[in-house]
Specification:
alpha/beta; globular
């Protein structure tokens, strides 16, 4: 057998190997897709059995945050689907009951899902319709509980049981504040204040670094915690001690392994901070 014959045989063996690998890979991918579909069905059933019926109706003239870079060039809205059952549990413990929760900038809706399957009332608002159109993450599982609108414009959530504006025990924003232009913050805080119940908690995290990808900046308002403390007081909110939470209770900035990517502010405090706010005391 000469060198040409050996080369020909080797190429044939490699070609057969590639075909077998492709066929096996295709079967694995098909089986994986089927498993995902079955799991989605199970999760829909879980929501149907465990979650309260959605009582909230969103009213807005601004259904999409068209000016947001995270909508025009999707990044966080495309990847994030943060979950944290610990956070839900900590709130249930604090209030001594099930709660009503509103997640602003909810991305994939994971936190809303976590609240719902524990029997809490919950609703999520996302500025981009990327996840809605892609039917990614929880948007195909809990569509009645996830909606889109520009949270820097006036909006209202109506409690359909009473016909009045809904009030929430907790409103969350996990690494969303820095995405908002400074000039748009007054209306954002007005929206938070109008939907936060008396004694309610406004909880979240804020990044203190710019996030630039492919020449696009996603964090137009990069400010230290002291700056935010001053700003929110002007809009009727105030920072309060976070003693009710353990560090790992926070959904972001805690090294949360259930997030797409999550910094750990205890190890890298220069990356951001957690906040807990209430209505400004009279």
């Amino acid at each position: 057998m000469d060198e040409m014959d050996r080369k020909f045989i080797s190429e044939q063996i490699l070609d057969v190997g590639r075909q077998l690998y492709a066929a096996l890979d295709s079967k694995i991918m098909t089986a994986h897709a089927q498993q995902i579909a079955q799991m989605q069905d199970v999760r829909r059933l879980a929501v149907a059995q465990l979650a309260p019926k959605n009582a909230f109706a969103l009213i807005t003239d601004h259904p999409i945050a068209y000016e947001s870079n995270d909508h025009t060039v999707p990044r966080g809205t495309k990847d994030d689907n943060t979950r944290n059952q610990r956070f839900c549990h900590s709130l249930e413990t604090y209030f001594g009951r099930k709660v009503a929760a509103l997640d602003l900038g909810c991305a994939g809706g994971g936190l809303v899902f976590d609240f719902l399957i524990r029997g809490n009332a919950a609703f999520g608002i996302e500025g981009s319709d990327y996840s809605l159109r892609a039917q990614r993450a929880e948007w195909s599982i809990i569509p009645d509980y996830l909606k889109t609108c520009d949270i820097t414009k006036p909006f209202s959530l109506i409690d359909q049981r009473t016909g009045k504006q809904a009030k929430f025990d907790v409103i969350t924003m996990w690494e969303v504040l820095e995405h908002i232009e400074e000039s748009l913050l007054p209306q954002l805080f007005a929206n938070v204040k109008s939907h936060l119940a008396e004694g309610g908690l406004f909880v979240g995290s804020a990044a203190t670094y710019d996030d630039v990808a492919n020449g696009v900046s996603y964090h137009p308002t990069v400010k230290p915690e002291v700056w935010w403390r001053d700003v929110v007081r002007k809009h009727g909110l105030e920072f309060v001690p976070k003693t009710m939470f353990l560090f790992k209770d926070f959904c972001r900035g805690s090294g949360n392994e259930n997030a797409f990517y999550d910094a750990d502010f205890s190890k890298n405090p220069e990356l951001g901070f957690h906040f807990l706010m209430k209505h400004l005391a009279a």
